[in-house]
Amino acid sequence: MVSIAHALTGAYLASVCPEPLVYVPLAVASHFILDYVRHYDIGVAMKKYHFGKIQIAIWETLDLTISAALIWWLFHTYPLPYQGHILAGALCGILPDIIETSDYFFNQPLPIFRPFYYFHERFHHSTTHVWWGVWPQLFLICAIVFLTLSR
Ligand SMILES: [Zn+2]
Description:
Blueprint: H1 3-16, H2 20-36, H3 42-49, H4 53-75, H5 80-105, H6 114-123, H7 130-149
Helix pairs in contact: 1-2, 1-4, 1-5, 1-7, 2-5
Zinc ion (ZN) binds near residues 31, 35, 96 and 97.
């Protein structure tokens, strides 16, 4: 899934339960669960349209910027200690993709992460059909926005 969905989910989990022993494993686990949902993301677009590293960097920067803006919009009124947990939750939500980034950007994948790449890849269910891959993510993002704003 896109970083927006992963980061927002991790941030939301941390906002609901700002206890690191709870939200850190939940946010990391949510990443794999969400990747299991058939989705369209930058990795799929990269293979479909043969994106180069600069195009991937531009898309990922956009993805992360929108993630940060949404998280700020939803949680900027929360007390400061809460905001630290929310940021940590968001980072845990995208942590598996941050680790995977070394595989994309370095031509030689880091051997220490090979078992992790294999594990991460096993959870990935993607589609090249944009609509069927985007709507579950839009639904998730709208649900988190709704749940956060209605608290
Ligand atoms: Zn992933």
